[in-house]
Amino acid sequence: MSSIAQRRANRRNALKSTGPKTKAGKRRVSLNAVSHGLSAPADPAWRDARVAAIEVALQGDRLPDADVRRLAEAIFEFERNITHQREIFATRHAGNDEGADESSHLEADAALPDEIDEILMIDERHGGPSEDERAWLIEAQKFMRRQQRLQHARAKRDAVEEIVRGDRYMRRAANQLVRALKSSLKVL
Q: Is the pLDDT of residue 132 over 50?
């Protein structure tokens, strides 16, 4: 049981937590649920055709039509989520057009420290760089290697964040499928 003072403090804090106030803030948060498209309804024609195909596969004389429909819709949502997860993985690992540009950019950056090594070797053959030049080139090489590791870590973080955003919808689809299966088993 909370005290009167705690309840008053909770009410005051609740007044502060009312979401964005500006139009720009409201516009930004209005897009939160559609960042990946899983919360948006699927194209009705595609969805109906796919659900109908699943229903045909599930048809039998043991399940009522309503249970077959519910099970088919749950399977469709689960498949849709699986497809989304596969697309994320394929995009991040197979290298689509955007990924190819990014990977070629990373490869070009990776070549820079090697070029610095070559500059150091060439300069050593011709008397070598001054001590200051050599120190600067070595620091530039270290900096570029750190930047490469940072870019790689950011790419991994972005992929994980995208998968985590979709995980909520995956769990919901899996739970709907389990409930549909359980209710179908009760009928049998």
A: yes
Give the rounded distance of the alpha carbon of 21 from its chain centre: 28
What is the residue extent of each domain of the chain? 40-187
Query: Based on C-alpha coordinates, what's the Rg of the chain?
Result: 28
Choose among 38, 17, 19, 16: nearest CA to 27.
19
Task: For residue 39, give every residue at least 6 positions away whose Cβ sits within 8 Å of its Cβ, in sequence order, or none.
Answer: 33, 169
> Under 8 Å CB-to-CB from 180, ≥6 apart: which residues?
67, 70, 71, 73, 74
Q: What is the mean pLDDT of the chain?
A: 78
- C-alpha torsion sign, points 176, 57, 46, 69: negative
> pLDDT digit string (tens) for 73-104?
999 989 988 888 888 777 776 654 444 445 55
